[in-house]
Amino acid sequence: MAVLRIVANLAAADPQIVRPFYERLLGLDIVMDHGWILTFASRGDERPQVSVASDGGSGTPVPDLSVEVDNVDEIYERAQSEGFEIVYPLSNEPWDVRRFHVLDPLGNVINILSHNS
Fold first, then answer.
1. Distances from the Cα of 89 to the Cαs of 31, 62, 69, 83, in angstroms?
2. CA distance 1 to 29
């Protein structure tokens, strides 16, 4: 038995409202659209993961989603230019990641990060 995928399901009265956030900001593609549900995905071969936390690290709340990207600085600049609300600024963390928290249009806290190499 192998877990093939883990999908976060975020509730929204109108799923279309998040399209600019997940498509333009994060560059994800819509892989399923039934009107009442949109599924966004990347084209990579990522491994499924799930985290359970009592704290978001550095005194932040636990984010609703964490999204690892290859260039967090580029996404941070894009988030600012698109006018998305940054709730934790771009920071280098002691556990070797560079990240920021941004609110999606539904009010979910999204942790966007890159691992430092």
1. 30, 15, 16, 14
2. 28
Is-contact 17 11, C-beta < 8 A? no
CA distance 107 to 109: 6
For 64, residues 6+ apart whose C-beta sits below 8 A from its C-beta are 8, 10, 108, 109, 110
Q: How far apart are CA 100 and CA 114, in angstroms?
A: 10
Task: Enumerate the β-bridge partners of residue 66.
Answer: 111
Which tokens in the block code for residue 16?
Answer: 């279309």
Question: pLDDT digit string (tens) for 61-79?
Answer: 999 999 999 999 999 999 9
Nearest to 62, CA basis, from 73, 50, 74:
50
- Check the CA dihedral 5-38-66-73 and report its sign: positive
User: pTM to 2 decimals?
Assistant: 0.85
